[in-house]
């Protein structure tokens, strides 16, 4: 690939240019406020004062006072950041997020490369720099920086944990990230699918420890979260706003009301589970750890009541996998053609400019159709993965030398 060779030669420069350009856009626009990061920074100390869930961010938008929406353990994790003044905390977190993006790319490429990671190390490390530069322009990544969200940090920890050799490290990583933000708990399905029973047990133990620590710090506060606030998506945000790219959000925009856990959502959820089951089984049989991880994360994003568009940073490993993994050409082209325009053009901003308020549910049919962008493509992706990997296994059953690295072999 001559074009790639030319780009790899200037990859560090491209990364520097991308970082500077993206930083300029963020600091001169909405992103300069890092509105979600300010919630973590300003409200986390209240976990020690017992009123964490009674206060809201002083930098909230006028139509939505922003509360702290994570478990008490999440606030405890953010406490060290609150010891810095705001500017230092903001820029330190941005730098950490860039490093986590590079880490995600690096682990993704290492899983794809397998033994080639060591035999042609320079090439793959150059690719890691190049892909980091490219992915800074992917909308979920950009919006993560714009809002000051924790998606890249959590995704980096989850990916590292799910492919770790040590069962205790793998399980503890997932359990503790689930303790910060509940959605990573879906990762336990991957452990079950790959029969990593010890990792699954350790994830439960670590999650229970995180919950217990919250009760230890303030029993009534933890009780309020787990028995009153838990499961209330309206507190997290407006279910039907364009930012919410879960099945529930898409269905609510289509039906014109919050569908909740009613029959439309149940049918869609069952369909998502079935499709993810087929895709995960195909990934396990193919020994493809990376796409197994991505499949499980997609399922979690689909089933969660609220999956903001910036939660979909898991599309990044998928795009890299599509470029370098040997799968059927039709599958590669189909998914790249579908995902790239949605990921690198701000389809979310397009919808936001056309909704009266973030609380408005009903909208024109064509606009509600556009609002299916992420969940619809995720469902298509699960189908394509299941079919393409099954076909690849049949064709290459006698030649496994160049497959992606087997499960549980990444140190």
UniProtKB/TrEMBL annotation:
<keyword id="KW-0808">Transferase</keyword>
<feature type="transmembrane region" description="Helical">
    <location>
        <begin position="134"/>
        <end position="163"/>
    </location>
</feature>
<comment type="similarity">
    <text>Belongs to the glycosyltransferase 87 family.</text>
</comment>
<keyword id="KW-0472">Membrane</keyword>
<dbReference type="InterPro" id="IPR018584">
    <property type="entry name" value="GT87"/>
</dbReference>
<keyword id="KW-1133">Transmembrane helix</keyword>
<feature type="transmembrane region" description="Helical">
    <location>
        <begin position="199"/>
        <end position="217"/>
    </location>
</feature>
<feature type="transmembrane region" description="Helical">
    <location>
        <begin position="289"/>
        <end position="306"/>
    </location>
</feature>
<protein>
    <submittedName>
        <fullName>Alpha-1,2-mannosyltransferase</fullName>
    </submittedName>
</protein>
<feature type="transmembrane region" description="Helical">
    <location>
        <begin position="263"/>
        <end position="282"/>
    </location>
</feature>
<dbReference type="Pfam" id="PF09594">
    <property type="entry name" value="GT87"/>
</dbReference>
<keyword id="KW-0812">Transmembrane</keyword>
<feature type="transmembrane region" description="Helical">
    <location>
        <begin position="372"/>
        <end position="391"/>
    </location>
</feature>
<keyword id="KW-1003">Cell membrane</keyword>
<feature type="transmembrane region" description="Helical">
    <location>
        <begin position="335"/>
        <end position="352"/>
    </location>
</feature>
<feature type="transmembrane region" description="Helical">
    <location>
        <begin position="169"/>
        <end position="192"/>
    </location>
</feature>
């Amino acid at each position: 690939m001559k074009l790639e060779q030319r780009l790899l030669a200037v990859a560090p420069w491209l990364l520097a240019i991308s970082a500077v350009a993206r930083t300029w856009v963020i600091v001169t626009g909405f992103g300069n406020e890092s509105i979600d990061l300010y919630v973590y920074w300003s409200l986390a100390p209240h976990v020690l004062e017992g009123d964490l869930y009674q206060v809201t961010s002083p930098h909230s938008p006028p139509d939505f006072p922003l509360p702290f929406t994570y478990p008490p353990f999440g606030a405890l994790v953010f406490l060290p950041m609150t010891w810095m003044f705001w500017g230092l905390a903001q820029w330190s977190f941005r730098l950490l997020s860039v490093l986590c993006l590079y880490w995600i790319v690096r682990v993704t490429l290492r899983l794809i490369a397998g033994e080639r990671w060591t035999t042609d190390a320079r090439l793959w490390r150059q690719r890691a720099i190049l892909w980091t530069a490219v992915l800074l322009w992917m909308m979920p990544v950009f919006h993560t920086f714009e809002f000051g969200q924790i998606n890249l940090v959590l995704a980096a920890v989850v990916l590292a944990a799910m492919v770790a050799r040590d069962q205790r490290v793998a399980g503890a990583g997932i359990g503790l990230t689930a303790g910060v933000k509940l959605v990573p708990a879906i990762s336990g399905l991957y452990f079950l699918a790959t029969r990593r029973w010890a990792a699954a047990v350790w994830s439960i133990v670590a999650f229970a420890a995180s919950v217990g620590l919250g009760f230890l710090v303030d029993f009534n506060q933890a009780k309020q979260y787990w028995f009153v606030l838990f499961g209330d998506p309206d507190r997290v945000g407006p279910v039907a706003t364009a930012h919410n790219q879960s099945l529930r959000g898409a269905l609510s925009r289509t039906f014109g009301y919050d569908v909740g856990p009613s029959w439309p959502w149940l049918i869609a959820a069952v369909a998502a589970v079935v499709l993810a089951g087929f895709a995960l089984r195909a990934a396990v049989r193919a020994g493809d750890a990376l796409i197994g991880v991505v499949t499980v994360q997609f399922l979690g994003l689909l089933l969660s009541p609220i999956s903001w568009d910036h939660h979909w940073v898991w599309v990044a490993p998928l795009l890299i996998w599509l470029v370098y993994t040997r799968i059927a050409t039709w599958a590669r082209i189909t998914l790249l053609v579908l995902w790239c325009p949605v990921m690198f053009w701000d389809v979310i901003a397009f919808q936001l400019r056309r909704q009266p308020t973030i609380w408005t549910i009903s909208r024109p049919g064509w606009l509600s159709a556009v609002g299916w962008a992420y969940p619809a493509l995720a469902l298509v992706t699960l189908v394509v993965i299941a079919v393409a990997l099954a076909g690849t296994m049949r064709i290459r059953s006698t030649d496994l030398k160049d497959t992606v690295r087997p499960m549980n072999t990444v140190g």
